[in-house]
Each structure stands twice: as C-alpha cells, then as structure tokens.
Design brief:
Low-confidence stretches: none
Largest sheet: 7 strands, mixed
Oligomer: single chain
Distance between the termini: 44 Å
Shape: globular
Helix content: 25-40%
Strand order of the largest sheet: 3-4-5-6-7-8-9
Radius of gyration: 17 Å
Mean pLDDT: 94
Structural class: alpha+beta
Strand content: 15-25%
CATH topology of the largest domain: Fructose-1,6-Bisphosphatase, Chain A, domain 1
Number of helices: 7
CATH architecture of the largest domain: 2-Layer Sandwich
CATH class of the largest domain: Alpha Beta
Length: 264
C-alpha cells in the first residue's frame, strides 16, 4: 500500500509544484499573515488546491492537513490523512531564491507511510515509501560521517523577533561543535538534505508545524537517520523541537539543540 501512497504523493507534489513554478520569479503579490516574515501568495493557495485535486482523484474521504485556507492544522490521531505544504520556503520563493518545495505526506493513524518533496526550481524530487528514499529516482541514504567536527548542520524553522537570542544561541551552539553551518529557509529541503547525506543534521527548539516536517522526518528515518525532540524522545507532531541527524553522533546534535534556550 505504501507504494500506492508514494505514487500519489509524488504526482500530487509534482503537479502542485508546477502550479507554483509558473508563478516563480514573476510579479506576484505578497501578503503577510501573522507577522512581517510570515508571507503568503496566491501561488501557495493555487498550488495547494491542485495538490488536493490530485489526492481526491483516488482518496476521496481522507483528511487533509494543509498550511493554507481552511484545511486541518493538526494531524489526526486515527484514520488516513494527507499533510500538504504547497510552498515550503515562501520567503525564498518571493525573493526569487530557488530553495523551496512542494511537500506531500500520506499518514495513517498518525504515522507517515510515504512522502514526496518536489523542488522544481532546483530540479530535485525526493520520494520515500516504507523502505527507501530516492532523489531523482536514485536511492539515497544519510551521511556516513561520524566525527562531529566534519558535520555540516543547519538551524531550521524560524525564531521570531522576540526569540532572536535563541536564534543566536542555535548558531553559536552549531559553530562551536561542528565543522560548518548552513541555513536554507526551507525545512523540508533541509530534512531532505539530511536524508540524502548533503547535511549531517538539523536542529530547532520550537514546535514545528506538521506541513513543515512530516514528509522530511519520514525521509530521514527511511534513509537511516534519527529524529527526536530536544529531550531525545522519538519525534512526533506537536513535540518541542526537532533534532534530525544521520544517527552517528546524535547526542552531540542534541547537546547543541539543548543550548538554544536562553537559560541553557
């Protein structure tokens, strides 16, 4: 069954991403939602509608969890659901930066079965079922690096203006422990990169929205990595923080995540 879910997730993500790509680097209106950096465009809404249309061709009754419009905002504990982010990385999208993704995940009783993250401006398509992860059709796995001083680690999600001390702490904790740091502004891209070995880890201490995380978390796990909350417990939607790594030095990555809070 996961193969069927993976096929639907990939097709829905591809078709939604095509809608978004048609508006990329055009003169599109930008609106704000909860704050100055929380932006949305008509491309987000149109892409989400296309994703849902594709899912509904074969899964009429499944719940939909989506960032835009009036869809559910949390993953149901029971039953089938699809978790959608039409444009993860909208701030990149509106700045004409290529790092953004259309993300679709299939969930049953709260557990992800399959997922797709499509990044059309980069030409990358990540797909996972319950056995493996592929990038552009080729199987990928997490990095095999074991020495934290060779790791490249990304702080992810967003610390708002009233939490910039935590943002600074996250950066400091990373650069003091690991070989280098990246920040991409697209959580699904970052998690996909951990799954494919382009990054060794990513950290945040904030609660992460399901549409920013579920697909990528599934990919990291299926590619051989580890994903926990900041306490080291298995990550599930609604947890405090998200710490994903190749599993080779997860304790070191956790230690960095735990230094993010101002009180240490």
């Amino acid at each position: 069954m996961s193969d069927e879910y993976a096929s639907v997730a990939e097709r829905a993500a591809r078709e939604g991403s095509e809608v978004a790509l048609a508006a990329f680097r055009t003169d599109i209106d930008v609106e704000t939602k909860s704050g100055k950096t929380d932006v949305v465009t008509q491309a987000d809404r149109s892409a989400q509608r296309r994703v849902i249309e594709v899912i509904r061709e074969t899964h009429l009754e499944d719940a939909i969890v989506g960032e835009e419009d009036d869809e559910l905002k949390t993953v149901p504990e029971s039953g089938a659901a699809w978790v959608i982010d039409p444009i993860d990385g909208t701030n990149n999208f509106v700045r004409d930066t290529q790092v953004w993704a259309t993300s679709v995940a299939a969930v049953e009783d709260g557990e992800c079965l399959a997922a797709a993250n499509v990044m059309p401006a980069l030409g990358d398509v990540y797909v996972s079922d319950d056995e493996a992860v592929t990038l552009n059709g080729e199987s990928v796995t997490v990095s095999e690096k074991t020495d934290p001083e060779t790791f490249v680690v990304a702080p992810t999600i967003w610390w708002d203006f009233d939490r910039r001390d935590e943002y600074a702490n996250a950066c400091r904790a990373i650069v003091e422990r690991f070989g280098d740091m990246r920040r991409y502004g697209c959580a699904q891209a970052v998690l996909s990169m951990v799954a494919s070995g382009q990054l060794e880890a990513t950290v945040t201490n904030v609660e992460v929205n399901a549409w920013d995380s579920v697909a990528g978390v599934h990919m990291v796990r299926q590619a051989g990595g580890v994903v926990t909350d900041v306490h080291g417990d298995r990550w599930v939607p609604g947890c405090t923080g998200l710490v994903a790594s190749n599993g080779e030095a997860h304790d070191a990555v956790l230690a960095a995540a735990r230094e993010i809070r101002p009180e240490g």
